[in-house]
Amino acid sequence: MPMSSPSGPTTGRRVLLGISAGIAAYKSALLARLLKQAGCEVRVVMTQGAQAFITPLTLQALTGETVRTSLLDPEAEAGMGHIELARWADTILIAPATADLMARLAVGMADDLLTTLCLASDAEKVMAPAMNQAMWAHPATRRNAARLAEDGWRLLGPDSGDQACGDVGPGRMLEPEAILEALRVAEGAANTGKGPASGLTITITAGPTREPLDPVRYLSNHSSGKMGYALAEAAAALGARVKLISGPVALACPAGVECLEVETAREMHAAAQRLAPESDLFIGCAAVADYRAETAAEHKIKKVEGEDALTLRLVKNPDIIAAVAALPEASRPLVVGFAAETRDVERYARDKLARKGLDMIIANDVSREGLGFGSDHNAALMLWRGTAGEEQEHLAPQPKREMARAVMGRALACLAARTTR
Ligand code: C5P
Known about the structure:
The chain has helices spanning 25-37, 56-63, 74-79, 82-88, 99-106, 113-120, 133-137, 139-150, 176-192, 226-237, 265-275, 320-325, 345-355, 400-420, and strands at residues 14-19, 41-46, 91-97, 124-129, 154-155, 159-162, 168-172, 201-206, 211-214, 217-219, 241-246, 257-261, 281-284, 291-293, 314-316, 334-341, 360-365, 377-386, 389-399. The protein is an alpha/beta fold. The protein folds into two domains: 14-161 and 168-189, Flavin prenyltransferase-like (Rossmann fold), CATH 3.40.50; 194-290 and 314-419, Rossmann fold, CATH 3.40.50.10300. Helix 1 (25-37) runs parallel beside helix 2 (56-63), helix 1 (25-37) crosses helix 9 and helix 5 packs across helix 8. 46% of the residues are buried. Residues 205, 265, 284-286, 288, 290, 317, 319-321, 337-339, 352 line the site of cytidine-5'-monophosphate (C5P). Cytidine-5'-monophosphate (C5P) is lined by residues 205, 265, 284-286, 288, 290, 317, 319-321, 337-339, 352.
């Protein structure tokens, strides 16, 4: 990746780098350096806690600018007041963004310099969350992340893996190189308008859903989310604005993609209903649980002595993609579905295309060893409604990222055919 190129789409961009109190703050020094090398003007604001992890002097040496740490600093305010600084920024990039900072921003607090700047600025706003995996998974953080995304924040990551505290899971800050790349992808797409999908909004569902049985158990499936994430990445690389509605997976949000995390089919349905009418293309790649427990037990379901069976009553979940396909013509995007089958792939795919009212379907045989669920590879049959009736193409076994590009290419062609009709 050409990270250290002295010019590029980020050249001249005024980036206000906010650093909050996470151990990942030590990586912010490298991020500041990469931003400078990419041609950005960089000014740094640190929260009080951040200074326990890395000193302002380090960032000052790397950026050549005084680092701001306090709202009520008469000397600093005499130089560039905080409102001026808020206006100066093209982009506010917070890395790392702690759970606490996310919570304060989500409710619109302005109790220190960084939160005040965020509230006072209409700059593009991007953050790279970093925290312990349990903190990231906590419903309060989930709520805050969703609200920040609604307020226009772009959340990059977090990544999944080893954590400084010894835990393993999602919560690691994206690496500085990946953060810079995400800024480049988004800006490149927005500024150059060169990508074949620039100007288009694409919404994609990915991963499994989780349907709670009680506070500790759920119904789910083996979907890894890899295919949906590869599609999101491919769509962003083509210049689209991409919104990814994802069930629980162990994957980082791809660069330049807006991720919305959900758990249940009903949450995914609500998000899809909200985003689909403002999308040009909707791709349902999620492995949605067809059924959920009629009622999730309030307390852990106990084993009953003397009973060998337990009966759970399941009820149908909404069919998310069928609901999108049934939107009124004026607000209906082009709708692309996936079908994972274990036999009669073509027949079932054709049936689903018609029954759900889709424009295109990608069907794969998940019983084939080394392909489909959890794998990095896939093979599929692509069926779509062409100008001269139903058309099809076989996609040979290939990496999911390559297949994603093929699917996006076909979907864009269908979209172009539709708009010229
Ligand atoms: O599960 P099924 O084979 O019917 O899934 C086919 C397509 O329908 C997939 O694109 C999947 O994402 C979508 N689907 C959905 N909501 C459901 C079930 C499936 O959007 N409840």
